[in-house]
Amino acid sequence: xxxxxxxxxxxxxxxxxxxxxxxxxxxxxxxxxxxxxxxxxxxxxxxxxxxxxxxxxxxxxxxxxxxxxxxxxxxxxxxxxxxxxxxxxxxxxxxxxxxxxxxxxxxxxxxxxxxxxxxxxxxxxxxxxxxxxxxxxxxxxxxxxxxxxxxxxxxxxxxxxxxxxxxxxxxxxxxxxxxxxxxxxxxxxxxxxxxxxxxxxxxxxxxxxxxxxxxxxxxxxxxxxxxxxxxxxxxxxxxxxxxxxxxxxxxxxxxxxxxxxxxxxxxxxxxxxxxxxxxxxxxxxxxxxxx
Length: 291
What we know:
- This protein has two helices and 16 strands.
- With 291 residues, it is mainly β.
- Strands 3-4-5-6-7-8-9-10-11-12-13-14-15-16 form a 14-stranded antiparallel β-sheet.
- Mean pLDDT is 76; it is low at 1-69.
């Protein structure tokens, strides 16, 4: 997951990496990236860290939710946007920021494009704590909830909880996540992934890695139960082949679908563009190059 914060906008996106052409259930989670990314425009209209209030003034302690002005997003929809923000300065050694933002598309009647419609609701609640005891540290918890949210013909439900703190890994937990398609089929999953971020040398990205552990369980569109367990931490390396992106260079995942077990092997840690998938003793080589 990548999150970026600006003075006047907030962008949230989720990226679930998965092998190409491999039809194992967690690939469906890639759809959440597009679904969550489309909220960026609506969230950005009102500002986040630069001020949760609608008029852009610096918020104070105990601000109450206010109604948005229903600005159009990039697809011509006009969601109702409500937000609340508070800053607790009563502690001598910390500052506590908390609040929420709700984007409500209702029944989609405000969308001017009949082809691309959004309905339902997305709520983002957050808690940021900055501590000045001994040294400056922070912790944060952010909860994003999808309530019958539709993008075109796809419905998304469930909750994502992101927790992070100074000098500690970031956890991303999915609770009762579900994607429902136009034909009535659906994919569900729950679970937690932990992201360990390691910096490279100097100020540049070269040498930086992300290490991921955890597991997911759920059902695929055919109704088969699945589990995806990272049996050896997946390592993403930045800068392989002189390209400004992360690619997986090592780690393994055990995927069980309907009782059938497959193992995905991302390699030995060197920069490469392939991965191996083994099922019932048979190995297949797959490209992992997204170019």
